[in-house]
């Protein structure tokens, strides 16, 4: 997922809205104009028209991105056509003002992604030279981080359990000179991570807390990612249809590791800490039970009313640890609730923050980098819904209302000192779209990366 080397013989790409096609055709020779019209090219979204030279070779390609209203209905329109271009090296010769060139260049790289660990996949034949005035190294770093996230989510739990997720973090750390500390199995109890241990103790692959640190100067950023490598639902066993995609329940961990990859590759001037509670929520004789009461690292007690609401339990211990050190911003990312999908669907990444400035910065960045996010409320009147009476907190309030909000409120109880930002992501592309094949996908990471200079005053 890199740009092609400069090539004087590269094929020119003319990116056109439907309103620009007629004016562009007027600049062509009569033969070329007749060819374009004979091929029915109108600049519609996803259309492309190959322009032949007199010798029958490809002289250029016109790519349609539709009208301004149609551009608002999707992302990465150039990538939509790029996937269908013949083999060759291409350069952007004309781009509408409506398009962000850096986003389109990134979309082209993301369209090259193939998950080929288990079966060979044909590479996208069209290669792009980095456009002028685009920071190629930055775009490639972002694409690499996104590819890491996708690979981790796409890998099945048989090959991406807690041990393998630890190995992935260690490999990433070694690449950039970060340090990793791992607390595993019964050591979680002696180190006071009781809920991480409880959720993961029934699995053959021991639960663990993975901690990665990088950087020794600048603002302190802590990323916490839900690493439930597979979620059966525990004793409140999921039905088969709901269990089918649960290899992606570590999508939060995959996303923070992908974001960490971007941050380190770009050498941002900050101190980064990544915490991943990695577990498998399995069924065995020692699995935790409904109506058990757990004591968290923070000392808050939690009544278990559904063992399938386990992600917030492991995140709670990790968030409590994150809040024990001076930190400028704590961010959690998790495939936490189905309620978030009901609220905003699979394409939007809902987030929670108490800061209007943070929300505005994230929303602006999400729109700017084609990584859509949507603010949800920390609605204080719902606090009573997570207070069962028999314990301090309820992990699965009855009634089914406001499930994403109550989960976010639960997590906020474990962060008192630092500013806190929470993403309830999906981490999965249910059907193929431009630059986003069906499967694992990062959400919110690029928006957060773009917003960090404002959030941390970098």
TrEMBL record:
Entry-linked PROSITE patterns: CYTOSOL_AP (PS00631)
Q: Which part of the chain is the Cytosol aminopeptidase domain?
A: 306-313
Q: Provide a GO biological process annotation.
A: proteolysis
* Gene Ontology MF term list: manganese ion binding; metalloaminopeptidase activity
Q: Which UniProt keywords apply?
A: Aminopeptidase, Hydrolase, Manganese, Protease
A Pfam family that this protein carries is Peptidase_M17
Family matches, as InterPro entries: Leucine_aapep/pepB, Macro_dom-like, Peptidase_M17_C, Peptidase_M17_N_1
GO CC field: cytoplasm
Q: Which PANTHER family match?
A: LEUCINE AMINOPEPTIDASE-RELATED, PEPTIDASE B
Similarity comment: family membership: Belongs to the peptidase M17 family.
Protein's name in the database: Cytochrome C oxidase subunit II
């Amino acid at each position: 997922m890199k740009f092609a080397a400069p090539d004087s013989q590269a094929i020119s790409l003319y990116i056109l809205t439907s309103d620009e096609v007629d004016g562009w055709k007027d600049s062509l020779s009569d033969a070329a104009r007749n060819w374009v019209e004979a091929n029915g090219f109108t600049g519609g979204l996803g259309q492309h028209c190959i322009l032949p030279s007199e010798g029958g070779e490809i002289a250029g390609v016109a790519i349609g991105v539709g009208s301004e209203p149609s551009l608002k209905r999707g992302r990465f329109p150039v990538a939509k056509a790029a996937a269908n271009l013949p083999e060759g090296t291409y350069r952007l010769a004309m781009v509408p003002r409506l398009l962000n060139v850096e986003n389109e260049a990134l979309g082209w790289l993301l369209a090259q992604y193939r998950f080929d660990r288990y079966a060979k996949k044909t590479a996208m034949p069209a290669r792009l030279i980095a456009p002028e005035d685009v920071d190629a190294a930055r775009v490639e770093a972002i694409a690499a981080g996104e590819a890491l996230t996708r690979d981790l989510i796409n890998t099945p739990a048989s090959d991406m359990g807690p041990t393998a997720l630890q190995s992935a973090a260690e490999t990433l750390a070694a690449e950039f000179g970060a340090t990793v500390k791992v607390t595993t199995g019964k050591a979680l109890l002696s180190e006071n991570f009781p809920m991480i241990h409880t959720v993961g103790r029934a699995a053959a692959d021991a639960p663990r807390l993975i901690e990665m640190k990088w950087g020794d100067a600048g603002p302190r950023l802590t990323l916490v990612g839900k690493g439930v490598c597979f979620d059966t639902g525990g004793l409140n066993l999921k039905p088969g249809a709901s269990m089918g995609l649960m290899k992606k329940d570590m999508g939060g961990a995959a996303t923070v590791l992908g974001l960490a990859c971007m941050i380190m590759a770009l050498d941002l001037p900050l101190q980064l800490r990544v915490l991943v509670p990695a577990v498998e929520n399995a069924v065995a004789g020692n699995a935790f039970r409904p109506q058990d009461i757990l004591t968290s690292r923070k000392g808050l007690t939690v009544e278990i009313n559904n063992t399938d609401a386990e992600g917030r339990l492991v995140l709670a211990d990790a968030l409590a640890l994150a809040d024990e050190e001076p930190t400028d911003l704590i961010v959690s990312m998790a495939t936490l609730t189905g309620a978030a999908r009901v609220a905003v669907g699979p394409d939007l990444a809902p987030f929670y923050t108490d800061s209007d400035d943070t929300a505005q910065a994230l929303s602006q960045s999400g729109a700017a980098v084609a990584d859509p996010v949507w603010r949800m409320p920390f609605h204080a009147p719902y606090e009573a819904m997570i207070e069962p009476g028999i314990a301090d907190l309820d992990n699965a309030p009855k009634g089914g209302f406001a499930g994403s909000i109550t989960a976010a409120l639960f997590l906020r109880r474990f962060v008192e000192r630092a500013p806190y930002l929470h993403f309830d992501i999906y981490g999965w592309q249910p059907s193929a779209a431009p630059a986003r094949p069906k499967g694992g996908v990062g959400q919110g990471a690029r928006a957060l990366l773009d917003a960090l200079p404002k959030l941390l005053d970098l």
